[in-house]
Amino acid sequence: MIRRIAVNTGGGDAPGLNAVIRAVAISAMSRGWEVLGIRYGYRGLLDEPDGVVSLDRNSVRGIHHLGGTILGSTNRGDPFRYPVMKDGELVPTDVSARVIQRMNQLAIDVLVAIGGDGSIQISSKLLERGLPRLIAVPKTIDNDLPGTDQTFGFDTAVATASEAIDKLHTTAQAHERVMVVEVMGRHAGWIALHSGIAGGADAILIPEIPYDIERVCEKIRWREAMKRRFAIVVVAEGAMPVGGEAVFKAGAGKFKEHGQLGGIAERVAREISERTGKETRSIVLGHLQRGGSPVTTDRVLALRLGCAATRFIAESNASGLVAVRGSRIELVPLADGTGRTRTVPPDSDVLITARQLGVCFGDEEPESFDSMVPPPPPSLPPYRSLKPPS
Ligand code: F6P
Does any ligand 1 atom lie closer than 6 A to the CB of residue 34? Predict the structure, then answer.
């Protein structure tokens, strides 16, 4: 019988976290369960004062539209490499036994862990070491988790990036410049692809398709010849040239498994400027993409995931990952949610659509741009264009 469950949020935040917390808390309370919130990932169980709080009806009121997480999050909360001060130095230390002991002391029957691949791996390891039961809710703006078709936060990140691209369009056009926009996504190009196509980008560079910068320059020269003297290039932070590597701002650390991607837009902008002579600027959207209120689709998805989590807790004794499968939400094995990155497949309909619209991915033959404007068939009478070229 379930009496008490706990919720935590780990890893980078994503818009929609609060909506999941609210849905878990309300749907659990309606079943008569008590709900605790663990703050800052697992840190709340270790050395955080007030690290465990009650998530009563009042604490989750009016939070579903707020970005961030009321529980706080951290990238340094891995209990298997927790920073512990030894001889004046922080040393990665396995404190997982303490975490499990605290959970047992608190009589927590099930942990609902909302997190990305790293957090799911950590919670799964805790389950192997004695955590009573685990329901993982996948989260990341990158939309790159295996096992689920979709993650909440992604649509909001895409909306933020698309709005930024719209704004860059007007200034790029005014100055006849090339604007290179770097978006997040780690080693997957979902955010770049979706925001690029929504924002009407001329080129989109994603990690799944190593680019040849000359192909991108060809597209810019072709636009110039068509009297379109500006261009928007969207670059995923993990994009790389053919035969090259992704650009990192900082390497992995003692407490951080992954390095910090960043800097590719600057490099692409410099190369475009050198090769085409065009005035070029680069911009990194960075953490803006993780901030702000979730868009409605993310709110709805997050609320569905949170309520599904408590349904699964009530319906069986299984641990698992709450996954989106088509239009359904299912409980799938935890292992399905980790171990690989869900990248953009070559047959992605959005990718094919972008190519049909003439977006350059840095891998096409230069002649393909010329073939995009066939002359009108001579037999048909010409109509006046709705919008004459500006
Ligand atoms: O995984 C989400 C994400 O925002 C990535 O898109 C990005 O590379 C990374 O996190 C940034 O992490 P941090 O917040 O540690 O800088």
Answer: no
